[in-house]
């Protein structure tokens, strides 16, 4: 049987030579670093094919090849990492040899590719060296979000069950039945302000501080310090809206810690806050407004003034200023959350396409 020469395409990197032999259903026979024998289907049908190349510089004896239905890919390592001016020792290129433009890079591009691989290797080593830290970080964030989820779930379930059993009567004792757990959850929430400062999460510091500070003013200053406010229905609406938002937010972050994305939960986390967050701020504003006359009457937390100006300045003036800041915070947080929602939607869209 006549032995024919196949079409061979080549490309190089600093450390390797890539050869692509155009033969379908090929079987590789005897081979050396300078010649190879194949049997397969080429341009002239089923035949035996062979080609021989005398390389410009020495190469290693190990040869890797991979056969597919359309071609044979060969990878040969150079003896020294060096860029070759040409592939063969002879200056005149063999007729069967041509550049493989699918893999072709010039020397500068190959150097950039090599540099990128080195950087990737360094980054991988850096990440591997930080594995214990990353493990502790994920474990801490997972446990924090789990504890908060369980706390707010207890509040939500408790209030829901009491609402079904007692109806509107449950509005008036919400504080006394759920305040301890809400105190615990909101004191824990201070960590959400600290975490961005320590670089543990990518969430912005100011949006977290605005939300946590705002809620703690409502919980500790208005509800906690005024017994007259603790039996008002507004407490029910504030607590119920807070817990409804959080029973979807904390599981979302909890699953993110372990690299899991549940589509339904993601949709709920980024959709329910659109109506619930403004409603929560409105409920908080109603609590502040209802507390103003009580602070005026009791003079609690009033600021002492010099005798010339009067006895004291009512704390209600501070709360009126706080009302303005509350709605400013609503705008900042709403904008921040909306940007998060859009970024996530765009990243999902890119993955689909």
UniProtKB/TrEMBL annotation:
Keywords: Coiled coil, Endoplasmic reticulum, Fatty acid biosynthesis, Fatty acid metabolism, Lipid biosynthesis, Lipid metabolism, Lyase, Membrane, Transmembrane, Transmembrane helix. The chain crosses the membrane at residues 140-161, 181-201, 238-258, 270-295, 315-338. It is a multi-pass membrane protein. Residues 3-88 form the CS domain. GO terms for molecular function: very-long-chain (3R)-3-hydroxyacyl-CoA dehydratase activity. The keyword Membrane applies. Pathway: Lipid metabolism; fatty acid biosynthesis. It catalyses: (3R)-hydroxyhexadecanoyl-CoA = (2E)-hexadecenoyl-CoA + H2O; a very-long-chain (3R)-3-hydroxyacyl-CoA = a very-long-chain (2E)-enoyl-CoA + H2O. It is found in: Endoplasmic reticulum membrane. One of its GO terms (cellular component) is endoplasmic reticulum membrane. Belongs to the very long-chain fatty acids dehydratase HACD family. Catalyzes the third of the four reactions of the long-chain fatty acids elongation cycle. This endoplasmic reticulum-bound enzymatic process, allows the addition of two carbons to the chain of long- and very long-chain fatty acids/VLCFAs per cycle. This enzyme catalyzes the dehydration of the 3-hydroxyacyl-CoA intermediate into trans-2,3-enoyl-CoA, within each cycle of fatty acid elongation. Thereby, it participates to the production of VLCFAs of different chain lengths that are involved in multiple biological processes as precursors of membrane lipids and lipid mediators. This is Very-long-chain (3R)-3-hydroxyacyl-CoA dehydratase. The lineage of its organism: Eukaryota, Metazoa, Chordata, Craniata, Vertebrata.
